[in-house]
Amino acid sequence: MSEDSGTLPRPMPTRIKICGITRPEDGRAAAEAGAHAIGLVFYRPSPRCVDRDTARAIVMALPPFVASIGLFVDAPAEEIRAVLAAVPLTALQFHGHESPPECACYGLPYLKAIRMVPGGDARAQAAAYAQAQAVLLDGYEDGRPGGTGRTFDWRTIPKDLPRPMVLAGGLDADNVQAAIRAARPWAVDVSGGVESAPGIKDEARMALFCQRVREAS
Q: Which residues, other chains included, contact 76 with Cβ-Cβ below 8 Å and sequence gap of 6+?
């Protein structure tokens, strides 16, 4: 209880990350909708992949206090360092088989994605990445490192994950409130659920998604 107000402290609102931004105007619209962070994909097979020049233009178009997260999948270290030399990223997000030392070697906070494989041990995987700022739980599809657009059974999330949890995987404005109630994540991460086409964000869908998250929080 707060000593000066006599009231219980308010819970922290659920943070919002909108991933797969490919245009500066989409980054600005995400921030205006209420996103706390945007994601930039540096994975060439993805339809949301951006080059360094585009990524820099997106980051430079963001208003203050909106984080920019670079997403990589088993990228060579020299490729990641080249991106960091050109793009002022706030943090990194790893979706491949990167080891804890590999994730931690760039001097930036990082998130490690964990695919929710049926029968897997998300708790043990999260514990292995003790230096991660958070773990991101994503839907599983064989042969795809993420961005599947698939939800998973939120009841399978361990209650005692050792790192803060970001919830991803098939989220949209229709299901995000149920996801927040079931999983109580620190943050939610959306991509395809707020798009009009792969890599093209829809301003109205982003606004509605962020509104629903605020309502659930």
A: none
- pTM, entire model: 0.91
Of 109, 160, 105, 157, the closest CA to residue 132 belongs to 109
The model's pLDDT over 102-141, given as tens digits with 9 standing for 90+, comes to 999 999 999 999 999 888 899 999 999 999 999 999 987 6
Token match 């708790």: residue? 123
From CA 169, how far away is CA 188, in angstroms rounded?
9
Q: How many residues does the chain have?
A: 217
Q: Are 91 and 109 in contact (CB under 8 A)?
A: yes
Task: Give the C-alpha separation, 182 to 185, whole Å.
Answer: 9
The structure tokens 């590999």 sit at 102
CA contacts within 13 A on the Cβ side of 76: 3
DSSP H helix total and E strand total for the chain: 7, 10
Is the CB of residue 72 less than 8 Å from the CB of residue 52? no
| Extents of the domains making up the chain | 15-211
Is the domain spanning 15-211 CATH 3.30.420.270? The answer is no
Backbone angles phi, psi at 10, to 5 degrees: -75, 140
